[in-house]
Write a structure and sequence with these properties.
The structure holds 2 protein chains of 2 kinds.
Chain A (H helix, E strand, L loop, with lengths): L3 E6 L3 H11 L5 E6 L2 H10 L4 E4 L8 H9 L9 E5 L4 H9 L4 E4 L4 H13 L1
Helix pairs in contact in A: 2-3
Chain B lengths: L1 H113 L5 H16 L1 E10 L4 E8 L9 E2 L3 H9 L3 E2 L17 E7 L2 E11 L8 H46 L1
Antiparallel strand pairs in B: 1-2, 1-6, 2-3, 4-5, 5-6
Helix pairs in contact in B: 1-2, 1-4, 2-4
The chains are: A alpha/beta, B alpha+beta.
Amino acid sequence: MAEVNFLVVEDSPTMRQLISFALKRVHGSKIVEATDGIDALKKLATQSFDLILTDINMPIMDGLKLVSLVRGDDQHKKIPIIIITTEGAEEDRKKGLALGANAYLSKPIQTAELLKLVNQLVAR
Amino acid sequence: MEENGFKPIKNKAEEFLQIFRKGEEFTQEILKENEKLRFKVVQLEEENRLVKNSEPGMVRTLEEKVAILTEENRHLMERYTEVEMENKGFAEKYLEVELENNNLANLYVASYQLHSTLDFEEVLKTVLEIIMNLVGAEKFTIMLLEDKTNSLKAVAAEGIALDEIPEFEIGKDIIGDVARTGESFFAEEGPDRAKGDDLTKPIVAIPLKIKEHVIGEIVIYALLSQKEKFNDVDYELFSMLAGHAATAIFSSRLYSQSERKLTTIQSFLDLIKEKPGK
């Protein structure tokens, strides 16, 4: 099976490790971590990714800004994006999806739910 | 004249002979047909005899086959039901294993992160991250025991300003009582009731213990809106935090203190070394 390249954008080392830990179960996964939106954009400029998983509340550049920038970029606009955040209100969810995220997960996350979503998006 | 009188008789005789011949031909045909029919009857009688002789055996064989097939079908249906049940069992087991896997991953990551640094501030940040991201708390604080005042003082918080959180004397209110007894507190009403406005009434208070010695507490006032109730893993996390967060906080604090002392001693030694030369 081909490689599946993930970009995990999260300022919390605990969450980064937890998400990466779960993604390692996807066959052929290669995980790159970024600590905020700017860091993610730098990594997007040098590597190609099959899926981006991003938090919203991060320093320097938040996840919503990252989503809108990725969707506005011709080279990366088709990369599926999952938002993983503590912001669980319906309006936050709608805002994230309206900006172009493919899915929205509220913390605390369940590994099985995350993997199901990841597999669906990667299979597209 | 005589010839004329004989002619009609002759004609009639010929007619009669003709009719007789036709009658003979017809009789011959009937006889032939009769012969054919006799043969057919014999044939049918023979077939009938064969069928009569063989039918009971065939029916019995077929009945036996039907019985075997019915039994096989019943057996297959039973096996199908068994496999269905097994399958259901496996699916349930898979979900259990998935959940357990999720729980273990949470515990592993939390424990790993707690012990990945000796920096006091970083340890506190990690504890906050674990409570927020893994438990799903919105408003909470970490309190440490002040030996001089015998009270609990907040050293880190999320969702509340540190200076808003009062100090709690040992034995006073729920928070003070948890520090005194070393027993965790979970609000009987569950997390739903909590609005988190009254800082003396937490929904959860977990003592941070090294062996039986309480060094502080994790106090939760409110959960994230999407978090409706605590799961098994939350209690596991609380239990893990009670021990691991306590040792991580305690050892990082000691390390920070020793680092400060080392810097002071080093400065003092440097000063002594410099003096004789001057």
